[in-house]
Amino acid sequence: MACLANSSSVHGALLLNRSAVASTSYHQLVFNARSHKRKFPLQIRADSLKSETQDKLSRRQILTLGAVTANLLILQPNQLSFAAEVKKGFLPVSDQKDGYFFLYPFGWQEVIVEGQDKVLKDVIEPLESVSVNLIPTSKQDIRELGPPQVVAETLVKKVLAPSSQKTKLIEASEHDVDGKAYYTFEFIAQAPNFTRHALGTVSIANGKFYTLTTGANERRWGKMKDILHEVVDSFKIETR
């Protein structure tokens, strides 16, 4: 089994990727009625508040539905199979050019980061984000680079965090989707003033090495982990 760290072509690509991802990390840094006479008016006020609350909820539901509908309407017919997998509270990204799909939490906004194919982040919590990176490769399958532990360890230490951060790989595993192998892993990257708890998934197809990473501040991991697992688990590549 080829070792990721010893592959000269992949090592060069990883160094290029490292520069881009490190830029992303620093970008993110730069970047929550007792009397009888009062019974009747209080009832009216209660009814009024109830009506106002229902009104606000209805408007929010309409806006959410509108956003979801808009995303679905721009999808091409052959992307609808991906769109059918959209879950409540999430919106889809379906990139027909590069052949990938994933879900992200409603409310995150897209930002442009040099070296990344797609980045979306929370406007209040800058460490809550998802990014997709693509680099060309001559490999045909992620397993050609080595087992999950080896590949994930190399990515975490050399690509997905700046060298100034202390990293720890928590776990790495392999799973299969429609006959394609994916490696999924969990890691922590510790900087002097924050710790990011993150998830990643990688695969190879269409002559490209695909990397999706998402994460959150360690202090919010308990609240965000299920949401971020949904993001990682939703990532799929369409073979051309």
Automatic annotation (TrEMBL):
Gene Ontology molecular function, alphabetical: calcium ion binding
GO-annotated biological processes: photosynthesis
Source species: Rhynchospora pubera
PANTHER family for this protein: PSBP-LIKE PROTEIN 1, CHLOROPLASTIC (PTHR31407:SF4), PTHR31407
Coiled-coil segments on the chain, per record: none
Name listed for the protein in its UniProt record: PsbP-like protein 1
GO cellular component, one term: photosystem II oxygen evolving complex
SUPFAM superfamilies found in the cross-reference section: Mog1p/PsbP-like
InterPro entries: Mog1/PsbP_a/b/a-sand, PsbP_C
PsbP C-terminal domain mapped to chain residues: 88-237
